[in-house]
Amino acid sequence: MRKAVLSFMIIFAFFQNDLFAQQTDPHLEELINRAIEVSPKLNALRNKRSAADATVPQVSNLPDPILTLGLANLPTNSFSFTQEPMTGKIVGLSQMVPFPGKLGASGEVRSKDTEIIQQEIEDTRNEIKMLAAKNFYDLANIRETIELTKESQKLLENVLQVVKTKYEVSKASQQNLFQVHAEITRIEDKIKKLENKERTLVSNINALILEDSKAGIETSELHEIAAKNFTVSFLDSLAREYRPYLKGVKLREEQSMLMKDLAEYEFYPNFNLAVQYSQRDEIAKTSTDLNDFVSFMVGISLPINYGGKKSAAVEEAELKGKMFADQYEAARQMLFQKFGSSISTLQELEEREELIANGLLPQMQQAYYAALSAYQVGEIDFINVIDAQNKLLHVETEIYDIRAGYYKELSQLEFLIGTNLN
Question: Number of structural domains, the chain?
């Protein structure tokens, strides 16, 4: 019993970890859902899909029957209905009937339009998701940079106190005071520029979700990169299975084959079924009562291929099918190039983050505090402290640049394959 419970706990923990790995940032998820919900482009495509769906019954049902009303053999000398036995009042009804299977083939061709537009909708959803994610990570990066810059400003203010103390005992020059004040002003200017970029990104995101440009957008901290090992063949297999654009091209190829089948129906005749009822009056001179007539007719169209127009329609459909097959392979070729580039970029960013976070950052921190300590005891010049502080800030902000770039590249890759890579 204890072994069974232990096994269950291990399995449960495994699935918990798997589910946790699949989770995305809740703020980003909320942003994406909102952007998809209010997107005018998606609404237009949904209406386009509904319109395409409405064309299917238009081509897959019989045309309207034709009611015929007429007079036959009416004498022109009297225009009397009782003078001649051949005179009659005619009521007819006719119905054109395409060759069996032609209407169904027409409906199948048009129904593919609905499926193609649905893939266009899905691709647009993924595009909106990518756009929202890129803006979100840029905003998160700017906010991290602002916080780091403000922390750097505090460090400089602490340095300023050290310089003032040394200046009061004539161990620091007035130039040192000017230098630290100038550096603090430079940092303040940098913060102002970063805050302006933040407002621009917030405005861009709010435009995406149709909100006021100043509405608040929440972001989370950019976490450490979790290394992922992708191959081009693996990404290609995902793209062939999930990418809506590729599915749409395949559907167009299938539609071309259905159009070829439909064009071949033009080599078969259509039929026109008709019935007529002729009512006759008695002849006035002889008081002869005349019988009414009923007529049945079947018309058959003659599918003559004048000028090769019917065979040309078949050839056109075949060539379109080949064109879409080539377009599919060309799209895959382009994706192969982008996959290789993305994999290289992701690997580079993974390696750089590990190198900076585990090597360069601790070194820059130690260098800064060592420089500050050395300045306090008069071993180095003040300019060395400023240089160490600037290098530390550069390295700290570079880590978040790398992380933002990594997550943006993943978002781009997810758009290209049409599914999540978490």
Answer: 1
Pairing status of strand 271-279 against strand 293-300: antiparallel
pLDDT band at 19 (very low <50, low <70, confident <90, very high): very low
Taking the whole predicted model, whether its pTM rises above 0.70 is answered as yes
> What pLDDT, on the 0 to 100 scale, is given for residue 256?
96
- Is-contact 184 155, C-beta < 8 A? no
Residues of the domain holding 408: 25-62+98-268+303-417
Distance, CA of 75 to CA of 78 (rounded, Å): 6
The position carrying tokens 């770039």 is: 405
CB half-sphere exposure, 336, CA atoms < 13 A: 7
Task: Report the pLDDT value the prediction gives residue 284, as an integer from 0 to 100.
Answer: 75
Considering only CA atoms, give the Rg of the chain. Answer: 39
Confirm whether 86 is domain-assigned: no
- The DSSP string of 119-161 is HHHHHHHHHHHHHHHHHHHHHHHHHHHHHHHHHHHHHHHHHHH
**Looking at per-residue confidence, does 275 or 6 come out higher?**
275
Q: Which residue has the tokens 């099918």?
A: 321
CA distance 150 to 152: 5
List, in sequence order, the alpha helices (H) in 303-360. Answer: 309-355
The CATH number for 188's domain is 1.20.1600.10
- Give residue 82's Cα distance to chain centre: 75
Closest CA to 403 of 332, 365, 346, 325: 346
Packing angle, helices 102-168 and 361-376, rounded to 10: 20
Q: Is the dihedral of CA 408, 413, 414, 420 positive or negative?
A: negative
- CA atoms 18, 20, 25, 29: torsion sign: positive
CB 262 within 8 A of CB 105: yes
Of 300 and 76, the one with more pLDDT: 300
Query: Does residue 240 sit within a domain?
Result: yes
By C-alpha distance, which of 271, 267, 261, 269 is closest to 310? 267
In a domain, 273, yes or no: no
Indicate whether 385 belongs to any domain.
yes
